[in-house]
Amino acid sequence: MSTWYEKCMPRIKDIEPFITNLFKDVKNMNKVKGIYVWGSYARNYKHPNFRVKDLDIIARTKFNSEDLIAVGEKDIKNNITIQYLEEQGFDPEAVKFSKNFMSIKKFNIDHWAISEDRKLLHWGPILRSKEDSENINKEAEIYAKNMAGVKRSSLTKENEEVRKNWYQSYYSYINKYFEEMPSGWYKAEDIKIRELLSEAIKL
Questions:
Q1: Any idea where the domains of the chain sit in the sequence?
Q2: In the chain, which residue ranges form alpha helices assigned H by DSSP?
Q3: Ranges of the chain whose pLDDT falls below 50
Q4: pTM of the shown model
């Protein structure tokens, strides 16, 4: 399968046949209560040709938020023993979950988790407020339009190269805000979990 298909704006109908099986192993993990898809996929699932720039996936868990926030990139990349993790104050199950969840990269997945203490977490740094996020997203879309020569709403009609250029421009603009921040779980402050789940699709 080509890189553009996995990363650059796949359609709803491209993702749908694979989405349930992608998360089967994570769904069956200890302390995972459910897997949900939300965001643009959930809002547009009735439109098979809609192109999705991110696939937002949420794992609802029984982990405390602090146990997840303690986990960083090096903790899931290094082959660390359970004994060492326990000695360092980590929850080994939280590390294992994070490692397995982050290993799923198809369709440019944005990884989210809901903790047992009702906190919404995102893997990787995020803007704290919804308003900031919306503003940066708009700025990034304008930048991508200027660089690729096409606006977001017209991408369905464009070829692979144009979509790839748009996607790369969009994310290069977004990523400049987070260059100095390490990967790991970050808390999202102003999204209401009940509303989020009411709009999400359970897998």
A1: 3-125+182-202, 127-180
A2: 3-7, 12-22, 24-27, 40-44, 65-69, 73-77, 82-87, 92-102, 130-148, 160-175, 193-199
A3: 1-6
A4: 0.75
